[in-house]
Amino acid sequence: MSTGAVRSGRNPADAPSASNSGSPEFPNDTSPVQAWTPSGYPIVDGKYLDLVDGTVKTVGPGPVTTGPPAIAVYIHNRFCTGQRGHFDTVVATSFAKDLTEYMIQVGELLRTGACKVDSLSATKYSVNLIVMTDLSSEEFGSILRQCRLLS
Does the pTM exceed 0.70? Predict the structure, then answer.
């Protein structure tokens, strides 16, 4: 499977080693992962270069986020009526090989007829998909997993 769970808030030290496969939180142990500080600096060996003051700083406890080469994904339902259980929003990280592979997976979603696209914006490391659907979170989430857009 090429998509993964949301990783925001995870510290790089929490990631499994390459020999630890099958973890539900880190399903694709062969994909390169780059952790970033919330302020946008890449973390390497637990440190990052703060470009504001030019010093190398150690990452302390606290949230980190993923970034390139992972793809940040935001899927939102514009048709959400606020009904209990109605699909609203998903924020996730994809570990698809590249944007082309992920867009093929989006095509699989559209082929199901589960939603209509209101807006789609994609860059090399980010996909924002605004849909219209009247499905529940459970139903739409199941379809997203079938299409390999979520793990």
Answer: no
